[in-house]
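User: Predict the full complex structure for these chains.
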Amino acid sequence: MIDVLVIGGGNAALCAALMAREAGASVLLLEASPREWRGGNSQHTRNLRCMHDAPQDVLVDAYPEEEFWQDLLKVTDGKTNEELARLVIRESSTCRDWMRQHGVHFQPPLSGALHVARTNAFFMGGGKALVNAYYRSAERLGVQIRYETPVEDLEIQDGRFVAALIPERQVNGVHFAAERIEAKSCVLAAGGFESNRDWLREAWGQNERGEYPSDNFLIRGTRFNTGTLLKRMLSLGADRIGDPTQAHMVAIDARAPLYDGGICTRIDCVSLGVVVNKEGERFYDEGEDFWPKRYAIWGRLVAQQPEQIGFSIIDSKAVGHFMPPVFPGSKADSLEQLADQLELPRETFLRTLQRYNKACRSGSFDHTKLDDCATEGISPAKTHWARPIDTPPFYGYALRPGVTFTYLGLKTDATAAVRFANQPSKNLFVAGEMMAGNVLGKGYTAGVGMSIGTAFGRIAGRNAALSCLDRQPV
Amino acid sequence: MSAESNLIPLLNTAEEDVNRQMQICNACRYCEGFCAVFPAMTQRLEFNKADIHYLANLCHNCGACLHACQYAAPHEFDVNIPRAMAKVRLQTYIDFAWPKKLGALYQRNGVTLALSSGLALCLFLILTLLIQGNLFTKIEEGNFYHIFSHNTLVALFGSVFVFSILALLVGVVHFWRKVAPKEEKRQQEPLPAMLQAGKAALTLKYLDGGHGQGCNNEDDAYTLSRRRFHHLTFYGFMLCFAATSVATLYHYIGWEAPYPVFSLPAMLGIIGGLGLLVGPAGLLYLNYKRHPDHGDQAQRPMDRAFIVLLFMISLTGLLLLCVRETTLMPLMLALHLGFVMAFFLTMPYSKFAHGFYRSAALFKSYLERFKEKKAKQ
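Assistant: Here is the predicted structure of the two-chain assembly.
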């Protein structure tokens, strides 16, 4: 019998597998996806939010524990667990040497991402390069890896993991019989349920307009996060955490693919212009704060609009001040034409823009700070970077809610144990998106998903190995 | 044709694909640390024909960005920068070749090099037979000037070499004028950029992966082997070139070939020759092992024919040294001269040109970087 079974194939699963193997356990990792899609959402990530008290290689200045904690507290509105959050924060300050040992390289912040030079360490080549490095290291260390092996069910006895069940399946025309895989301990790191359209529909329900909002959501991440195991664990009585409608959700280009759109589909010009809904009305302060601090709320904002669509409108003054979007925007020489191109009601749209333009108080525009360009006398106000949209050509980008990952998960503690009726399992652990909701009750801040996945992946792997030796988790 | 297309050259299919992929990369930028291509890309919001030609030649086809790419196939975006760049790169070799008509030689480059070698070998075998009567005569001290006089060799090889280098330079200068507009050049202090570009070219900086562990070959693991075998090839070649230059110099100061093994020209030739044997052999091995998605498969004959030609030059050269005092000397001399002639003839129409175009692109990339640094100050 294998010692440690790791279910999942992304960052948290790999961290767990590597730690367990390093502790001397025999490890089998089951990835649901084919090899070319391996790595779950980790393949789309780009950095890790890191605590540090002094400059470190690619990280400038300092980002002390308290500041990191305050940032987390702010974005989650207090919906977090301080003990676990601080654990993640402290782990983030020490894990990078270990990551490097397993072949991960870091690079200076990307151009256009200098605002996180202090807080976030970027992976050279991004998350897929990190995932590749971890798989190579795992193979070298003797971790067994199986692709296209989705786990459908678990056998749990008195809160102990017994075996994982894999259904009968066809892979590239080859038939595989159902399997039952026993192990002494198990780490669950199989992601959230963002790619399960039915579950999203169930969670988001129907709104007052009779729409099922989630039908218009795009998934920025992997198509393989269907939440099969999460659902099964919840029905097996594992303690749960989080609200199923909470997720890391940003506004992305409406033309993005349904799955795996990743980073390049984001629209970074929101704070430079205005955003209107399908009816041509503004609905939120576009200049409330720096975009990296606000991008994570816009997915929900757009989700609340009719037909779950928004339109970011800028003029030529904004060009060059934001990361270039992947798809060209609608371009027009007049606002009337732009309204027609975007199929917005002309009159309302023009009235919204006129009111906004008139309300812009003159100030000195500076996109690198919270400047004094604000509107006066309109609601919602635009509190920074408000400049009249009056210089053709005008550009418009349609926005949709883009879900990165969901927060509903399994409740855990500092040992990463899965809990049943508030008792920790002795040999079943959880890491990554399946438990991120313990730290992230809502909201998001860049790179924290990888901090959680790395911290809890490592803890879960270590404790899974210890539990095989009948030792207490630490 | 619209009025605009007179000003902005239209993109062909390969260029259009680079343009499409660059829009995706520019919105992602994860690969910035790997090489010079991505930092150069972030300087632009749009990519015209000249930009695309420049970036295509800046790409070293190291493969790092392909393995790291979240948008590579089977993703519907199907991003493969090394391949898209390789296709345009070949197109630039064809378009900028001089005389223009001979650019077509790149289209079936394996055949071009094989035919050139065949013809050159025939030429020297026939010449040897005409002069010598047979291919197997022992010649005192292995003095090959008994077969071909120094002046004959200088006339034959010198003229071809000068033509080929000129043709190559005409092409590269033409390329440079297209990718580096005049106003840009005037603003620059070219020397520091030139030094940096020279260093990047001579150390193959952009085959180090940005982290020093090398580039990709058969899979997502990094390896320094391609960089090292290329160094052996390039520096081996340069030592052989130095051997010939020193020998020429010796000749004109009155010390005529053949030179003893422990003379400067012979030693340079032996060491260089060994490098030029091991280097191409390694590169050929790596080329066969290469991941099928790296670069443009259709260009493998161009790569391999050139590698084999270098290998044969070195092999016949070293064998010539070994057998120079035996009856095999005339045959081996004819073979060696044949391969060298084939190489000289095809210099502007073979993979050899890549070093020149890439150096020009590197120079431009450092010019841009210095300009950006200045603008920031």
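Chain A has eleven helices and 21 strands.
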